Give the backbone structure.
Amino acid sequence: MAELRSRHNGTIAVEKESQPSNHNNNKLDKELSKNGNAEKSDPMIYIIFVSLLFDLLAFTIILPLLPSLLEYYRQNDSSGLYAVLTDRVRWFQQLLGAPERYISVLFGGFLGSMFSFLQFVASPIVGGLSDYYGRKPVLLVCAAGIALSYLIWACSSNFALFVLARFVGGISKGNISLCMSVITDVSSVKTRGRGMALVGVAFSLGFIVGPMIGAVFAIFSDKSGSAWFVLPSLLAFGLAAGDLLVLSFCLRETLPKEKRVKEISSALSYGLQLLNFQAIFRFAAIKNVPKKDIEALRSIGLIYFLYLFLYSGLEFTVTFLMYHKFGYTSMDQAKMFLTTGIIMTLLQGSVVRRLPEAKIKGYAIFSLYLIVPAFVLVGLAEGSRMLYAGMTLFAISTAFAVTCLTTLVSKYGNDDQKGSVLGIFRSLGALARALGPVVGCIAFWCVGSRITYIAGGLLLIYPAMALQRARI
């Protein structure tokens, strides 16, 4: 029994057999209890998990509804904005030579890029504010903004109001980086990885269950009515309101006043640098830390950006590939994404959250290399078996990559800079997701799917090699 306890803890040596048995057990129990408590995750991590799950369920409900929503506004928009934007998208569609039927998908892609760009702008500002005011009040403002966006959606009788709803939602999405800051605040080096993995689990569950709820509305809603989207939008609002209540009554402040930045001007100093992309890649706002830490942040930030830029571009065009090359119906695509989502959830809930701190970098490198054959297989696929094989590798890689990279970057910066560090990090990811789908679409329709996926997969070797060489 004593030997098992020693193995479980990894730091307690088995007592010599010559010592009295009761003394051995009592001493060992005390040590195990003390160390076991140090290893327990703070309850706030689970509050953040519930908050993110509510938020992501609300966010993903709209995804299957977008084609129907765009069709509704095409026929019923009184603001004139839809017609103006459609002309711009049609020009882009004709430039690429994409089929006419993909205009709505391209339109959705541009809306998604706008949403990601707003996150890029908001994340570092929100992170800086939280370093000065504390995590909880800024999280509450973000959650209130997200809830307001769904309420505007419910009232969006024209396309201009719908775009306003997406704008308000995008600018309020700094809550993701704040949630990671809370986890960093309350975690030790050994428990931080499992906290970040729970974020990944929340994303996986949200992107499995939310679209399924949205698909039910898409199938069974009477779209001949003038306000058929009110019910799903009110459900999203209800989930967002639930998130706001959880944060209000269950979350404690995790950044004590003595650890906060002393001047708001320094907390927001990089907010004015948002137009200077170079400053964000250089983490120029992070001051008074060792030079080697800044170099590590820059390395991880660049690797994360390049990975998500290529990844999101290829990920976005997979929908085109399934429909255009394999003739997949919406249900076929739903089965594919359900399969990948379940794989990611199982891995993040079991393996990723238990990774020891010393192995985080190794698994991050493994996941970045694994994405290479994933996209090569997708590019070479001529049948569903090879496509599923590539998408399975894609899911395994995704389960590890972002969680491990986020865990690595969360180690750097002083206590009063964690929000800023993670805000800039999330901002780089949002910028990558804003640009990647546009570039991916251009490549897909100009040079074809095979060249796009194989070239993109091979280019993903660079982030893996860069992380392998980085001194982190």
Q: What stands out?
A: Residues 1-38 have pLDDT under 50 and may be disordered. The chain has 20 helices and no strands. Residues 291-324 form the longest helix (34 residues). The CA atoms of residues 197 and 351 lie 9 Å apart.
